[in-house]
Amino acid sequence: MSNLTSFVTEAFKDHLNFLSVKVAIEGVEYIALPAEAEIAPDLDLGGVSDQAEGAVILEKKNFTTMPRVGTRMLVDDELFRIHAIQKSVGNPLVAIEYIGATER
Q: What is the spatial distance between Cα 95 and Cα 67, in angstroms, rounded to a whole number?
């Protein structure tokens, strides 16, 4: 693990001590760091798409496979759907943006 990766991971864990939310995705519970969702309207066929309501940051190593967009998730026992997943090579963290759950 690089020094930068170690620093990011340790900073993430330190922040969890002060501010965290309980997240459940596909029946697995995690402790995550709450974050602001990237707010930018997306133009889709038929109009502007829904905006993410919030985001959580988790360690990538928590997932053997990433959840899919549209998967339902609980954030502090409130139901949402995954709106977007932001990850990058070399970054040990992943940001999951969510939006209110609607019946499909």
A: 12
